[in-house]
Amino acid sequence: MAIISPPQSDLDLLQQAKTGDGAAFGKLYDIYIKPIYNFIFYKTLIKETAEDITSIVFTKAWQKIGQFKGESVAAWLYAISRNAVADYYRREKNNLNIEDFWDLANTDNFLEKIDLGLAFGEIKKAMQSLSAREREIIIMRFWLDMSFKEIAASLGKQEGAVKMTLKRSLQEVKNKIPLALIILGPNIINICQSKN
Amino acid sequence: MSVKELNRILSELYVLEPSLRNKEAELILLIQKMSDLKPGTKFDAAFAARLKQEIIGLESPISNENNKSIINFNFMDKKLYLALGSLAVASMAFIFFLKTTVTNPQMATYVTKNGDNSQEAVSVLPAGAFGNLASLNSSVSNGAVGKTATLGLGGGGSNVAIGEMATFTAAPADASSLAAVSPMAGVTTDMKIMPPYYGFKYVYKGEALNLEEASAAVYRRVKGDDATAKSVAGLISNLDIAGFNLSSFSNLKATNISLVEDKALGLAVSFDFNEGNVNIYENWEKWTYPERDACANDQACWDRYRLKISDVPADADLVALADSFLANHTVNLDHYGTAIVDNYWRDNYAQSSDKTNFYIPEYATVIYPLLIDEQAVRDQSGNYAGLRVTINLNKKAASGLTGLMPYRYESSQYNLESSAEAIIKLAENGGWNGNYYFQAENVQTIELGTPEKAYVQIYRYTNNRSEELLVPALIFPVINVPEGINYYGQKYVTVPLVKEMLNDLGAQPGILYRMMEGGSGVSGSTGASSGTVEDVPVSEPAIDLVAPTPASRPVLR
Q: Contact B43/A151, CB-based, under 8 Å?
């Protein structure tokens, strides 16, 4: 899913929006509404909640557009979204340090509103072994279908630097079978191969 | 998925988040499960279209942004909070998202604004749960100067006056010191020639009072949060500072912490965990005035930088600055009323004959009255109490905030006075604060209008801690402020409605002067009442105290 238009284009629109140009902001909105909503949905898993928080994110973005000083519109919007979700859970959970849905205990009534099938419990358990940032990246990659470049942009990472690191990393592993894959056993290897 | 592809994905993930490398096994399993189950997000295009319409329909943010640059408004945004680290987060959490865990077994019901038991709450306790409120007045009449000085904290000058009443001194011989005793202290220009000193008496001119309520709630603020205070202490207890650490101490809890913004026009944020409030001030080191400071001893130079009346923004602009400040600091105003600018000095400015030399205060205050039962809370002088935002008029920037605290109260019913006659008599005696302008000669009459009901914020000391109570009261407006007399600054007379508080209200100094007028015998020492005061009925005062002569009228310092 291509969610990030060329950075320069985003920045141009944003600079126009900073002058009060609602149409320019509207174009940015069109680009980002779905990815941002989806991002928030996978942090809340409740449609109504995701819509409420999405409303907050774009309203805040419009109201605070004059304060934008970064280099990536995507990183800015995802940061607002991340904070808005965390604010939501902290508010709802009496200021407990909950970043997203995946931090919730199984006894929380939020879970009653979720219907994602039997496998969901296993995913939740696995997700909870990761930090909020780690699972966010996993969700971006596998559920939001974001490319490496898009995820890097949303995290505010410099494209050149991460590309270089990735290249080096790929050269290191090449065709090496990940150690974990060996430990996990032949079933997993089969799964990997069957999906080839 | 081939091994090569898996390697690529894993490599990408490790570049994005190196910590994932340590969780490779869990990661591979998770990837497999996530590929099997990918929930749909139920994205609703109609919602997106509707939201776009709403947002683009909002006022353009640009006008606000321009204002900020024009007035050089400095604020800290959310990033600052993040940067302040976990300590600040814990502290902010204490203030803005305080957990409400009510443990009082006497609690009858538990209600909150939002219907949940999160941050804001009023707990209803049985009637009379705060004990005898008469002591609120006797602490004044017993001459406990140290304590009474803080009674009604935050309530303007006259609250301090109560405590200071016990230390009457001779009238100042020169006009400059008289200015210092005026409620309008600091406005000295017109006081070079001693004016005739008038005394005042109050006369009620309002409508007949209708006191139908037999009882009403008194509120007590729930302060502090030990859990948070201990949590904050825990955060710093492992630090080794200058070779010293706290490992030898036990059961630590923080009482207050301060954080400053280390930048030009930076702010200082102070958290008081005992009182349960947060205050913001200028980080004074960062608010500099190099041009003015370079004046050294050159008075003419200093005068050039004195504020002129034209430098003071209109009230609407001051409120806008305060609004913006609060919005940027995400202060919730749900429990506060419409902003009011404290223009205490403008009356004197209007009366001043030498406006050029009139000292214009360098700070303005915008008050957002605290609301309880939909009524604005007042102090004992009748002035609005609540959130106070300070505006630095030199910098044209909001630079401080006091009175911010979680909205958590307990309430308890108390019997109210039903006799209009008794209430009016107390009002004519100066009410809560007494009539410290009374004297036998040169007396002017001040008329009081129809009162309004309000809650008045008062303080009570028990076990070395102060309790903050909100008690129902009547606020009588002064309707004919005497002209040309700078030292009279009272705009209201306040009278509590709680019956048991009225019984010894008559023992306060101001009322003693009033009694003098009626010819009561007096002997003893001023300000330190005898043990008989608690038994004094309002209608039949019989206290033996020295009558202050005109030369020993009260002086506020």
A: no
Which chain B residues have a beta carbon less than 8 Å from that of A33? Answer: 48, 51-52
- The predicted-structure confidence for B516-539, as pLDDT tens digits, reads as follows 444 333 333 333 333 333 333 333
CA distances from B41 to A28, A37, A56, A115, B453 (A): 21, 8, 18, 12, 53
| Residue B250 exposed, middle or buried by CB count within 10 Å (0-12, 13-18, 19+) | exposed
Residue B11 within a domain: yes
Q: Is residue B463 part of a domain?
A: no
* Interface confidence (ipTM) of the complex: 0.79
For chain B, the domain total comes to 1
Provide CB contacts within 8 A for B430, sequence distance 6+.
B202, B436, B438, B493, B508, B510, B511, B514
The answer to whether B327 contacts chain A (CB < 8 Å) is: no
What distance in Å separates residue B407's CA from the closest CA in chain A? 14
CA distance A98 to chain B (A): 13
pLDDT tens for A18-74 read 888 888 888 889 889 999 999 999 888 888 889 999 999 999 899 888 888 777 888
Q: What is the pLDDT of residue B412?
A: 94
What average pLDDT does the structure give for chain A?
75
> How many other C-beta atoms lie within 10 A of the C-beta of residue A8?
8
pLDDT in tens, B76-129: 333 333 333 444 444 444 443 333 333 333 322 223 333 333 446 888 888 998
The verdict on a CB contact (< 8 Å) between A131 and B19 is yes
Tell me the CA distances in angstroms from B372 to B191, B407, B456, one per residue in order: 41, 10, 10
Is the model's pTM score more than 0.95?
A: no
Domain carrying residue B7: 3-36
Q: Nearest-CA residue of chain A relative to B23?
A: A130
Q: Do B51 and A142 touch (CB under 8 A)?
A: no
More confident site: B366 or B171 = B366
B267 pLDDT tier (thresholds 50, 70, 90):
very high
Interchain contact B180–A (C-beta under 8 A): no
A188/B29 touch (CB, cutoff 8 Å), yes or no: yes
Average pLDDT over residues B57-79: 41
Query: Within 10 Å of residue B176's Cβ, how many Cβ atoms?
Result: 10
Q: For B417-451, give the secondary structure using H, E and C.
A: CCCHHHHHHHHHCCHHHCCCCCCCCCEEEEEECCC
Residue B15 covered by a domain? yes
Whole-angstrom distance, CA of residue B526 vs CA of residue B528:
6
**Contact B79/A at CB under 8 A:** no
Q: Give which of B355, B413, B452, B329 is closest to B79, Cα–Cα.
A: B329
Q: Do B48 and A122 touch (CB under 8 A)?
A: no
**Interface probe, candidates B2, B5, B7, chain A, greatest A C-beta count within 10 A:** B7
Are B58 and A42 a contacting pair at CB < 8 A?
A: no
B60/A177 touch (CB, cutoff 8 Å), yes or no: no
* Total number of residues shown for chain A: 196
B74 lies in some domain: no
- In angstroms, the CA A10 to CA A25 distance is 10
* Domain annotation for chain A: domains and CATH numbers: 7-157 (1.10.1740.10), 161-196 (no CATH)
How many other β-carbons are positioned within 10 Å of the β-carbon of residue A11? 15
Residue A172 has pLDDT above 70, yes or no: no
B56 to chain A: which residues are within 8 Å by CB? Answer: 22-23, 25-26, 29, 62
Interchain CB distance below 8 Å, A120 and B61: no
